[in-house]
Design brief:
By secondary structure, the chain is mostly beta strands. The protein contains two helices and 24 strands. The strands form six sheets. The chain has a five-stranded mixed β-sheet with strand order 1-7-6-5-4, with no helix packed on it. A five-stranded mixed β-sheet has the order 2-21-20-19-18, with no helix packed on it. A hairpin with a 4-residue loop joins strand 12 and strand 13. The relative contact order is 0.19.
């Protein structure tokens, strides 16, 4: 079990005020009211195969059982981090934190929990999910319609993308991003232009799964936190079907403190060791678990 002293964060740097600042609004009521946007049709990315299209035409409502987690290690985590996005690359965590006036992008040492480098977003931005692609980080914002692009080594700003709607979670396969917006739909976006390539509605036992949040692309599936839930959905991005469910509720019993914590949110994957790192908003720990679909 990894433990360390309380992390010491380097001074942060503020990003300039946005051209179109959104008004700050309470998190819970606002997101509950606006998150669910059920759709009645499924549109698959142009990269979907003919076999996947055939799957879409077949009803798939089989029961999907819950898989329990086994914690193999525990890592310190900044309890003041309102975790919105988490990734693991080159032995480091990359993290996006949220809240108006508390959002940041940061690089974190997984052994000590120390924040090695951090950039604070302007108070009018609410940070959301992020992904690391090559030498750049792409970080979503909630309602601003802006994704920041950062240098993955220095956190120097490299530019922005714009998009319609809300930004929640983000991950990437070899040839496209996968993005959530709090609804039951996942959108596929170009790695270079961020243009929408297609989308798919996520279905569990015949019903849409709303409030899809933080994402992690693992192999050929997508792991997704569900806001206000301790469950993680394992999704086929070609069909939208939930092929496995992971029960994250047992993680709470391993927390050193549950005072002031928020929901489970934050999934990172280490492909070399084939383990997941899981945490939550304002959680004092990050938990290392074997890849649930392989246990």
């Amino acid at each position: 079990m990894l433990r360390s002293t309380e992390p010491t964060e380097e001074p942060t740097t503020n990003i300039g005020a946005p051209p179109r600042p959104p008004p700050a609004r309470p998190v819970s009521e606002d997101r509950i009211a606006e998150a669910a946007r059920p759709t009645s049709t499924i549109t698959v990315s142009s990269t979907a195969t003919a076999g996947a299209q055939a799957d879409l035409e077949q009803p798939q409502s089989e029961s999907v059982s819950l898989t329990e987690l086994t914690v193999v290690d525990i890592h310190d985590h900044d309890p003041d981090a309102f975790t919105q996005g988490l990734a693991f690359r080159n032995g480091r965590f990359y993290e996006s934190t949220g809240l108006y006036g508390g959002s940041s992008v940061r690089i974190v040492d997984p052994v000590s929990g120390e924040v090695l480098l951090s950039i604070a977003l302007d108070k009018d931005y609410f940070g959301e999910g992020l992904e690391v692609v090559g030498d750049r980080i792409v970080q979503l914002t909630w309602k601003s319609g802006i994704a920041f692009i950062w240098d993955a080594q220095t956190l120097e700003p490299l530019g922005t993308y714009t998009y319609e709607g809300e930004g929640w979670g983000l991950c990437a396969f070899a040839d496209h991003f996968v993005m959530s917006d709090g609804s039951s739909t996942l959108a596929f976006r170009d790695l270079d232009t961020f243009e929408v390539l297609g989308e798919v509605e996520v279905i569990l036992e015949g019903q849409p799964v709303h409030h899809l949040n933080e994402l992690e692309c693992v192999g050929d599936v997508v792991y997704a936190n569900v806001w206000f839930s301790d469950e993680i959905m394992v999704i086929s991005p070609t069909t939208g079907q939930v092929i496995a469910r992971v029960d994250g509720s047992s993680l709470r019993q391993h927390l050193t403190s549950t005072e002031g914590i928020d929901v489970l949110n934050g999934i990172a994957y280490d492909p070399n060791r084939r383990v997941l790192y899981l945490t939550g908003k304002l959680w004092p720990e990050i938990f290392e678990v074997p890849l649930p679909t392989e246990t």
